[in-house]
Amino acid sequence: MTKEELKLQVISAIDDNKERIIALGEEIFAHPELGFKEEYTSRLVKRVFEELNIPYQGGLAITGVKGNLKGRSSDLRIMVMGELDAVVCPLHPQADGKTGAAHSCGHNSQIASMLGAAIGLAPFAGELDGDVAFVAVPAEEYVELEYRERLKEEGKLEFFGGKQEFIRLGVFDDIDMGMMIHSHAGVEDRRFLIGCDSSGFVGKLIRFTGKEAHAGARPFDGINALNAAALSLMAINSQRETFRERDRIRIHPIITKGGDLVNIVPADIRMETYVRGTNLEGILDASEKVNRSLKGSAYAIGAEVEIDELPGYLPLIQNSRLSELFAENGERLLGAGTNIYGQELMGATDAGDVSSIMPLIHISTGGYTGDAHSRDFTICDKEMAYVMPAKAMAMTVIDLLWDNGKEARAIRESSKPKFTKEGYLDFWKKFGKGAIDRRGF
Prior knowledge:
By secondary structure, this protein is of the alpha+beta class. It folds into two domains: 3-198 and 316-422, Zn peptidases (Aminopeptidase, 3-Layer(aba) Sandwich), CATH 3.40.630.10; 200-313, Alpha-Beta Plaits (2-Layer Sandwich). It has 13 helices and 17 strands. It has helices spanning 3-16, 18-29, 39-51, 107-121, 145-153, 162-169, 225-238, 280-301, 320-334, 351-355, 382-400, 406-414, 421-432; strands spanning 56-60, 64-69, 77-83, 87-88, 101-102, 131-137, 177-183, 192-194, 200-209, 250-251, 254-257, 268-277, 304-313, 340-341, 360-365, 368-369, 378-379. The strands form four sheets. The protein has an eight-stranded mixed β-sheet with strand order 1-2-6-3-7-15-8-14, sandwiched between helices. Strands 9, 10, 11, 12 and 13 form a five-stranded antiparallel β-sheet that branches. Strand 1 and strand 2 (64-69) form a beta hairpin. The protein is elongated and about 85 Å long.
């Protein structure tokens, strides 16, 4: 069988199962679950793997699943990945009435497309010069932090993002490179968006501590922590002109506790913020400036400040050769000139963390109306959302694992990831301790 013949047979197998793939996506859409709680969707993924006779591991980072389709040899393994979780969007028509969870970001499409690729490739595994891992990952959305903090205290996880946990647990240790798709809100027509960037971020929980006093009778005996917090907002704003345009830094602090009683000088003030940017160096530089602003403002008022550094997500690094292969297959499916290249996005994803340790592509797809994470987000073209990405990813896997995996081997040999797994884990460990020297990046 030639590579072209194999592609045609895989496309035919996916077409034969088109309604099944769409039904899977719709079933997930109707059962949204928040991160590390995706029990229903995890069972659905296992059920399909069992039907396809794909061996799998379950219970990874609580709800994650990893299937392995064995090819002719096993010294190459390509990953097709999808995300299990929904986001909090209680006003969405399909939101869960108890949790407020809704698939208003399209993760249901990711899982359906990943399973669609598995359905297409499973009958032809013996034609591939390597294995294919189909991976369903929990908890991409950075929500319910208090719940995840409890899981951390119970020893059930260390990171708040599912892919970060997968890195820590070694789930990706045997993967050479990977791919996944994501919805692109507001792109209704049939298009693949290639090489889009995505920001990274770090989080901060901040507590200013002052001294209580009667606000009317003896304010001079107090230390107003709210004044320190307000001053810090001005200090952070005063840093903005020092941020480079190319880093696209975004800082958006909020005060989550502004005091206890109006007639008591505020002594316990809480804030939260993200520091976002499109490259790690810029993020660390801006993070250092934010910390200076917080500490200097506390000193000016005579208050104390505690900064709890939270590991966020790293900026996305798209592999150029993987992108080229996917783009060729995308145009074959949708027609010449249908791909869109290089969109700038300021959202963040823990796929960025995976891309820091291996070659990866994170392709956006059309077929959606409305805004992401909003009540009006929905799928307007189910075949585009669920089926076309399955075909494109399956075809790209064939390109990678054909002719003794020539393309995959070339990408693996030429790739220079930003981190090793050990270096990645060490980076976040040092960041949490405030021991990162940004000049080293």
